[in-house]
Amino acid sequence: MNELATLFRRELALAWGRGGGPMLALPFYACIATLLPFAVGGDHAQLAPIATGISWLALALTSLLSLERLFERDFEDGALDLLALGAPSMVATCFIKCLAQWLATGAPLAIAAPIIALGLGAKPELWSLIFTSALLGGLGFAFTGGVGAALAIGSRRGGVLIAVIVLPLFVPPVIFGATAISQAADGLAWQSGFALLGAYSLASVALSPFAMAAACRNALS
Amino acid sequence: MITGVEIENLALTRGDRLLFEGFSAQVSPGEAATLVGANGAGKTSILRCVAGFIRPHAGEVIFAGADPDEARGQGLHFVGHQDGLKSTRLARDELNFQSRWTGGSAAGVERAIETLALGPLMNLEVRKLSAGQRRRLALGRLIAAPRTLWLLDEPMAPLDTARRAMFGNLMAAHLAGGGMILAAVHDPLPVPARTLEVAG
Asked: In Å, how far is A33's CA from the nearest CA of chain B?
């Protein structure tokens, strides 16, 4: 356990230090969310109904940003060799890496999500649901995204490849998350969408590390 | 705790190419063995196979006294060309991480800093270190986290004469304590070692 705590601290420090963490993700998120109203027209009546949808789409895209660095850097500089020779299993190692990715990138984005959505015209009383669903969805994005990142290790155009692998897998959380919020906005029951989002993220947390570990071992050979 | 390594009739491939076949070797406690051979003969691949990264095409690697997972997770160090050091982090942070990850204690890290004379480097970013300094930093975990088997890929290459002698003393001490060394080299190690020819 001691080793995993050490790894967690290192991953957090790297995420903040390497420029791929929140310092890059937050402006990127804001840029996408600002760009879309220009594309669909800035009319408030037109924008308000799709505000939560846009904020979720932007969230999914932003979550892709730092995935390329999750395993590729460690592979290139030999740190993945070292990680494979620690006492913890590769599965636990991948779990910790994604957890740190979530905390470094997903959590700041979840804080920004209500601000973005409200700026686009979502109802102010929705902010807490937008925050919690973005936090929960971000967990799924980090772990599912980690599988794509591990599969893309060693490929030259890793970033694009990860996006192509991972974006189809981001469909369910985008549907569940955006649906929950839009239903809450209409005064309908939002719990089912939220529960499905939670189920998706927790299943990803439980299953993805095994796929990542297998992909990492494959990359080392 | 590994009490011996046996490489039995090993054959390795890289892609579709067969590197070599029928390679057998044995390393016992207190013993050093060096892999010698031409560039591309497969010396590094043998080390990576013993470390569990490459699956053998035929044959196997057997650890005495430990199952393979335990041996690789707790019993061996692998120091290769790529040192795994992050260029933007402080030398101290990286030494700490590499040592703790492989099971070293705070006291072990201090011992490594003292033995390898790493003190003056500790507050520098890794990218400011020379090749030799980086290698010394990467070797730190050998001392900070005691593990029986050292797999070393050209460990001496970037080191200057004085550091080679110092590292020679470290290897001698490791062997005297019952440790084992398997190294891929072009220049002989400064400790008595059996030579294993790797021929493609």
From this structure: 31
